């Protein structure tokens, strides 16, 4: 039983570590690819990158 | 936490290196096409006063930064997936890179091809929504098709791969582009090639760097 409990604990922490990395990655990618601001400052800064990565632009 | 920091460090390094490679490719291939297409655009009055980076080092700098940061973000997805599956080294990394290319470039591009500035498209939010739906559906579809062994899940995965393409991307009623058709086709081809190189490099680098660390 001890072994089972220990291995479950490891896999939970492993899941959470990977999950946090994935949430962080998606936040960065979707933020850069999709955010629009009122003055278009962010859009204009990343404009060429968005076009070249095939994110919907304009 | 220690494992998380290692994943971040690996992803940052892989993202910056692959982003640098992509930036060099874009600088000589797709950027000239974007600049050429902008010659056909007339600036609309409402946008004239918005800040934009000056052509040259400033504009390129932001693009390089964008490539490095998106590379970091995408590498986090790859390295976390490999960490979960206890994979390391080039080959599985290449597999994940190919998956990322299919999910984040090929599938969305089938409905919404990469566009040059000055191309008329459907309303932005509807295209963004379709893009997100397509990436999510393709990711789940690939997972079901490739990483499960049950027949039912594999069939479900194949359906999820096809679903966004059957629904179809939003398009304007009358398509109109300012740049010549040949320029647009050239842009799509080069973009597809550059992103393939970027994703394969990103996957291979992430996989190789994972070999350098031991997890708890």
TrEMBL record, chain A:
<keyword id="KW-0812">Transmembrane</keyword>
<feature type="transmembrane region" description="Helical">
    <location>
        <begin position="15"/>
        <end position="35"/>
    </location>
</feature>
<dbReference type="Pfam" id="PF09489">
    <property type="entry name" value="CbtB"/>
</dbReference>
<keyword id="KW-0472">Membrane</keyword>
<dbReference type="InterPro" id="IPR012667">
    <property type="entry name" value="CbtB_put"/>
</dbReference>
<keyword id="KW-1133">Transmembrane helix</keyword>
<protein>
    <submittedName>
        <fullName>CbtB-domain containing protein</fullName>
    </submittedName>
</protein>
UniProtKB/TrEMBL annotation, chain B:
<dbReference type="Pfam" id="PF09490">
    <property type="entry name" value="CbtA"/>
</dbReference>
<keyword id="KW-0812">Transmembrane</keyword>
<feature type="transmembrane region" description="Helical">
    <location>
        <begin position="155"/>
        <end position="171"/>
    </location>
</feature>
<keyword id="KW-1133">Transmembrane helix</keyword>
<dbReference type="InterPro" id="IPR012666">
    <property type="entry name" value="CbtA_put"/>
</dbReference>
<feature type="transmembrane region" description="Helical">
    <location>
        <begin position="90"/>
        <end position="110"/>
    </location>
</feature>
<protein>
    <submittedName>
        <fullName>CbtA family protein</fullName>
    </submittedName>
</protein>
<feature type="transmembrane region" description="Helical">
    <location>
        <begin position="183"/>
        <end position="202"/>
    </location>
</feature>
<feature type="transmembrane region" description="Helical">
    <location>
        <begin position="61"/>
        <end position="83"/>
    </location>
</feature>
<keyword id="KW-0472">Membrane</keyword>
<feature type="transmembrane region" description="Helical">
    <location>
        <begin position="130"/>
        <end position="148"/>
    </location>
</feature>
């Amino acid at each position: 039983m001890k072994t089972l409990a220990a291995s479950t604990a490891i896999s939970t922490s492993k899941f959470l570590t990977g999950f946090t990395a994935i949430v962080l990655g998606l936040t960065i990618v979707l933020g850069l690819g999709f955010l629009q601001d009122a003055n278009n400052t962010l859009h204009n800064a990343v404009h060429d990158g968005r076009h070249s990565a095939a994110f919907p632009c304009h | 936490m220690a494992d998380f920091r290692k994943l971040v460090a690996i992803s940052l390094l892989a993202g910056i290196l692959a982003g640098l490679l992509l930036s060099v490719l874009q600088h000589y291939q797709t950027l000239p096409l974007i600049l050429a297409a902008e010659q056909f655009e007339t600036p609309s009055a409402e946008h004239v006063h918005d800040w934009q980076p000056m052509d040259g080092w400033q504009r390129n700098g932001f693009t390089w930064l964008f490539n490095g940061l998106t590379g970091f973000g995408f590498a986090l997805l790859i390295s976390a997936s490999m960490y979960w599956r206890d994979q390391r080294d080039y080959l599985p990394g290449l597999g994940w890179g190919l998956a990322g290319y299919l999910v984040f470039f090929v599938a969305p591009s089938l409905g919404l091809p990469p566009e040059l500035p000055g191309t008329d498209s459907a309303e932005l939010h509807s295209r963004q929504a379709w893009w997100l739906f397509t990436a999510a559906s393709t990711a789940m579809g690939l997972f079901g098709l490739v990483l499960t062994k049950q027949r039912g899940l594999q069939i479900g995965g194949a359906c999820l791969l096809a679903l966004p393409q059957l629904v179809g991307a939003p398009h304007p009623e009358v398509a109109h582009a300012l740049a010549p058709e040949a320029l647009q086709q050239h842009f799509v081809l080069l973009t597809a090639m550059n992103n393939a190189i970027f994703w394969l490099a990103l996957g291979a680098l992430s996989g190789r760097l994972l070999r350098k660390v031991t997890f708890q």
